[in-house]
Specification:
By secondary structure, this protein is of the alpha+beta class. It has helices spanning 19-30, 36-56, 60-76, 83-90, 93-101, 212-219, 278-282, 309-323, and strands at residues 4-7, 10-13, 140-148, 159-163, 184-188, 194-200, 205-206, 225-226, 229-235, 242-248, 267-268, 271-273, 289-293, 296-297. Helices cover 29% and strands 20% of the residues. Strands 3, 6, 12, 13 and 14 form a five-stranded mixed sheet that branches. A five-stranded mixed sheet has the order 5-4-9-10-11, with no helix packed on it.
Amino acid sequence: MPDGLKTGGQEKLRRSTSEDDITAAVLARFSATPDPRLKQIILGLIKHLHAFVKEVELTEAEWFQAIEILTEAGKMCSDKRQEFILFSDTLGASMVVDLIGHRKPEGATESTVFGPFHRLGSPDMPPGGNIAHRDTVGVPTLVAGRVLDLDGKPIAGALLDVWQTQSNGLYDSQDAGVAGLHMRGKFTTDTEGRYLIRTVRPVNYPIPSDGPVGAMLKATGRHPWRPAHIHFVVMADGYEAVTTHIFDRTDEYLESDAVFAVKDSLICDFVRHATPTPEAATLGISGPMLTAEFDFVLKPAGAAAQVDVLDAQRRLAALGARAN
């Protein structure tokens, strides 16, 4: 068989069909992408995706299984749950993106994963407002501190968007017995940069394991547990917002967080009190309680535009609502 075919007096070479030829052809098709950043991303994705397929010699059956997993993950996404964020979190990709995108100067509060259970519309709360008003099981807890700049000066009017699980280990969106929003609130710092939040002691909990992410963890011998924590997005005009947690120092899962989100600087003490502190008593707390103190330090906003994580959440929620 000749290497080429004669067509109209001209020789047309046969198309090569090796794995590397296909990769080269796909890269060539995308090489004229006009946006430089999109071009960098798409070409990098193709190179690494093809290299992965070739390295593990992916079978057709495994390829179909991957498509099924992604399809099922999409079906589970809504305005209350994001299975793809869970995949990203449990594969460590979220934390790699976080570390690249949020390099902090010395002293600034470190960021960590956003997670899949933020919800829009949290109520504005006064200082000492109780986000756990329907949780009668947990130990009453006051979380207090300041929002500061890198020089230690207070930032007045900073906004803290706060959320956590209930004492049963479920977020409100997971609990069929809870209507509306619970364990969520927005707090504003006073002229001295201070904030005060009333809640209950955070508990460790398993991430949802009833979907593709749970199946992956089970198949790979991993546990689904996250250490006890409270979520924060802290923002103020003229400063870069920080998405972060505070973690309970005594939690057994600090060394094996299912989403790799623990950073030493975010671990704090939840101190037990046999009787209410004077401040707690004025808020109507009686009996044993806990206090935790944590200062958030923000760096000035840079010249480059920053991604608004809450705006991104609005877009995701809108997509989820349309899908359901």
